[in-house]
Amino acid sequence: MTRTDAERLLERDPGIHFSWGNLTSRLDKAQFYAWEPQYRETLYESATGLGLDGEKLAAALHTVGLGIFRPDAIAAGKVDTILDYYARLGMEPFFAAPLTMTRTVVREIWRYQLNAATGELLKMFDLLYEASPAVLALFRTDPAETPVPCSVLMADAKGEADPRDRQGWELRSHLGSVNRIEVFFHTADEPADVLRDGGICLGPQGLAAALRDRTGPSTRTRIRELAAEIKSGHPGRAIRREELSPLLAREWPGDENTPLDRWTLLRHFGSLPAAYAGRDENLVGDSGTDAWWRNAGLLEGRTQYLESRAGGAGPERHDGDRS
C-alpha cells in the first residue's frame, strides 16, 4: 500500500470500503467504526507501520486477536486456564500490557452494546473494573492452520455471555462463568474490532507498534507475571452498602450493615433482570462471525470444529479463590 493509499484510510468512505469485507462482515459495523476518527487513525497507523498494501494488510490483521484478562479473571486465578484453552486452538500471545479500564474506556469499547444497557448494568461494570487493572494481550495464529481470522476463532470459542446460550465446551463454561457479568475474558470479535479495541486501549500508534512485533517470542510468562503483580497489589476488600450507587444499593443482599465481598456482590447483581435488559437492542448486536465460517465452508460444522480442538478438562467450579 503506497503512502497515498494509506492516507486515504483517514477518510470515512475509504475506511468503510476497506473495512467491509476485509475486516468485518457487517456493513453497519464498518460504517459505525469509520465514523470514529480514532478508528481511522488506527487503520492508517497500522497500514503505515506495517508497510503493507490493502490485501496484505488485511491478511496480516486476520492473524491477530485481542483479549483482555479482566479483574475478575485475575482475582480468581483464571489466567492460566485462559492461556491453555487458546493454546489448544493454536493461539499464542505475543504482546501484553497492563490496562486501567476507566469508565471512559469501558463505555467506549462497548459503545455499540451499552447503548441499550440499564443504569444498573453500567454500575455493575463500574464495580467490576474498579477492582484492579486488567491485562491486554494480542494473540497470533498460523493462517495455514486456521480457517477463519484469529479474532473470529477467539470470539466464538469464548462462548456467549449468557450461560443459557452456552453448550459447556466454551471457554467461559470452562472458567465457571455463571452470569453475563462474571465472564472473565473479553475478546475482539473480528479484525475490525482488534483495530478499534486496540486503538482505544493502546492508542493508534501504540497498537501499530505492538503489531510490528507480532513475530516475537510468546509472552505467556509476561502475562502471568502481570496478573500476579496486579493481584498482589489489589487485595480484595469488603464493600459497604453506602459505597454503591443507589441503583445497586437497593438490591443489596443480606444485612444492610454488613460489608460484602465485591465478587459476591457482582455474582448477586449479575443474576438480576437488569443485567440482561436490552441485550437484543444493541446498535451492533451481531458479532459478524458467522459469515467468516460460512465463507470457509464450516458454518454448519463450527461447533464440532471448536469443541474438538478446544478439548481439555471440563468446566471449573465458579468458587475460585479471590483472596
Structure notes:
The structure is a single chain. By secondary structure, the chain is an alpha+beta fold. It has 19 helices and 6 strands. The strands form 2 sheets. The protein has a 4-stranded antiparallel sheet with strand order 2-3-1-4, sandwiched between helices. It has a two-stranded antiparallel ribbon with strand order 5-6. The chain is globular and about 65 Å long.
Morphology call: globular
CATH architecture: 2-Layer Sandwich
The count of DSSP E runs of length 2 or more, i.e. the number of strands, is 6
Beta content comes to 5-15%
Q: How many structural domains does the protein architecture include?
A: 1
Indicate the CATH class.
Alpha Beta
CATH homology-level superfamily: Nucleoside diphosphate kinase-like domain
Tell me the number of helical segments per DSSP (H or I, 4 or more residues long).
Answer: 19
- Which ranges are low-confidence, i.e. pLDDT below 50, for 5 or more consecutive residues? 317-321
Order of strands, widest sheet = 2-3-1-4
State the major sheet.
4 strands, antiparallel
Provide the residue-averaged pLDDT. Answer: 92
